[in-house]
Design goal:
There is one protein chain. The protein is about 35% helix and about 20% strand. The strands form 2 sheets. Strands 7, 8, 9, 10, 11, 12, 13, 14, 15 and 16 form a 10-stranded mixed beta sheet that branches. Strands 1, 2, 3, 4, 5 and 6 form a 6-stranded mixed beta sheet that branches. The longest helix has 22 residues. The chain is globular and about 65 Å long.
Length: about 475
């Protein structure tokens, strides 16, 4: 018997579900991105003509322009092209939208409510869930002046990324750990789980393995780079109040420049939610599903890339790279304020105060998981060479995070650290050893939205520096937290 139960809806093959015509490209395994296999080109080399050829060859019926809203959720605007001239207009110029409905939380001005969604050809993918053949493109937002919209989260993260690159020469890259819970009723099949013992458990001891593996494959097909996936520790028995059994899983993405890393997170959540709907399961990215049980974080790993070398940890002599120091110093300085974008749910504060390896003090350490920031171990080959990039892990955010605004804030934090006149002493005073002892007096992270608002107010100049976060956006952020 399937671990999903005989009456659970089963997925069809997402590779071929809407294909009118198959080609030899579908039989290839690598590269993982489906359109990359079909075109024979890297996404950065795609043109409008390439996509028009895909539409013609695959008889694509719909074009979907996806973009990120002020609330951190994916939005979509759908088209049925009338002819190839109309298709080209969509691909080149996009279409207008109501910015006041999209960016209310960012304080967009009434005179700037008309915005344009402009597609990026390099982001195109075939929608694996569409009933009609659909080509999707991710978009940025532009104002009446033809410039990127200042209130758009997409604009903000790109401005922050470009500022770091311009001022330091560093290509700041990141990856998100997307943790989530799947819920199903106990009578839907055999359940073998055990409370907080599901870490790396295979089927049949977890019921969500099949869904998770399909999510990994689909994400790779649509062009999202993946590091790995596994089951996590969380497991919650059904109760009279909640008839669902919940088990936790994780999809860890791969390093990508900040704007693409933010898009990868929202696409991962979109894919997982769609699959949960298809399988008849419930899905939650909430920081806490039930008090007293493991919560879902969304840890972010950052690695500054300079001239092709990742500098997110220590050098061959065991000394922190300067860029890693900047990140650690900045994150321990304004980490509490970053909760405005990384911890946006009431359950965020429960997760941080009930233990379960969630950080609650402003500290950093090489390995300790109780630290706010840590340096994870780096796998080596038999010659002692690293096979993955060293990273600085920020363990404060959770599943309520707005990845675009959070990563923009992290980029600003790195520049705060760079300008720290007392950098070495600051690092010493905020350090935690592997036993949990700290050198200085460890400050607590904010415990309420009002405390987060106070932290944002204290560090608002850091966010607004370089015109990354507009002043009126930060005003609205503070107002929303206080309300």
């Amino acid at each position: 018997m399937s671990s999903y139960g005989s009456d659970s809806p089963q997925p069809s093959d997402a590779l071929t579900r809407f294909d009118v015509k198959s080609t030899d490209e579908d039989l290839k395994v690598l590269p993982a991105g489906r359109l990359e296999r079909m075109t024979g080109k890297a996404p950065s080399s795609w043109t409008d003509d390439d996509l028009i050829e895909i539409v013609r060859d695959r008889r694509i019926r719909l074009i979907s322009l996806m973009h990120i809203g002020g609330d951190g959720w994916l939005k979509t605007l759908d088209f049925v092209p009338r002819d190839f001239s109309h298709l080209r207009d969509i691909l080149i110029a996009g279409e207008r939208a109501d910015g006041s409905s999209l960016f209310t939380a960012q304080g967009i001005q009434p005179g700037a409510s008309d915005v344009v969604l402009r597609p990026r050809v390099s982001t195109a993918f075939l929608d694996p869930f569409a009933l009609e053949p659909t080509l999707v493109l991710l978009c940025g937002h532009y104002g009446r002046d033809g410039k990127p919209l200042p209130e758009s989260p997409d604009t903000i993260v790109r401005n922050a990324y470009n500022r770091v690159k311009k001022e330091t020469g560093v290509d700041l890259q990141a990856l998100g750990e997307v943790e989530y819970f799947l819920g199903k009723r106990p009578d839907e099949g055999d359940i073998y789980g055990s409370s907080d013992r599901g870490y790396h458990a295979p089927s049949p001891f977890v019921f969500g393995e099949k869904l998770r593996r399909e999510a990994l494959a689909l994400l790779a097909q649509i062009g999202v780079p993946i590091k790995y996936g596994h089951s996590e520790v969380g497991y919650i028995e059904a109760s009279e109040q909640d008839p669902y059994i919940w088990e936790q899983h994780e999809v860890e993405l791969a390093l990508w420049p900040l704007p693409q890393a933010a898009e990868a997170v929202v696409l991962a959540q979109w894919v997982i939610r769609n699959l949960a709907h298809r399988y008849g399961m419930r899905c939650s990215f909430d920081p806490i599903v039930r008090r007293g049980h493991a919560g879902s974080g969304m840890h972010f790993h950052m690695s500054p890339n300079r001239d092709g070398a990742y500098r997110g940890g220590k050098d061959e002599n065991g000394e922190l790279y300067p860029e890693a120091k900047w990140l650690i110093s900045g994150l321990t300085t304004i980490g509490g304020a970053l909760m405005a974008f990384g911890n946006r749910d009431e359950g965020s504060f429960i997760r941080l105060t009930q233990g379960k390896e969630a950080p609650n003090t402003v500290t950093w350490g090489s390995f300790n998981r109780k630290a706010l920031i840590r340096l994870p171990i780096v796998p080596m080959d038999d010659k002692g060479n690293p096979v993955t990039a060293p990273t600085v892990e920020f363990r404060l955010p959770d599943g309520s995070a707005h990845p675009h605004l959070l990563l923009a804030g992290i980029a600003q934090a790195m520049l705060v650290g760079r300008d720290d006149k007392d950098l070495e002493n600051h690092l010493k005073q905020t350090s935690m050893d592997n036993t949990g002892k700290t050198t200085g007096a460890a400050a607590s992270v904010p415990r309420t939205f009002e405390e987060v608002a106070a932290a944002v107010r204290e560090h608002r100049d850091s966010f607004q520096s370089g015109d990354v976060f507009p002043e009126h956006v930060m005003e609205r952020v503070i107002d929303n937290l206080n309300s």
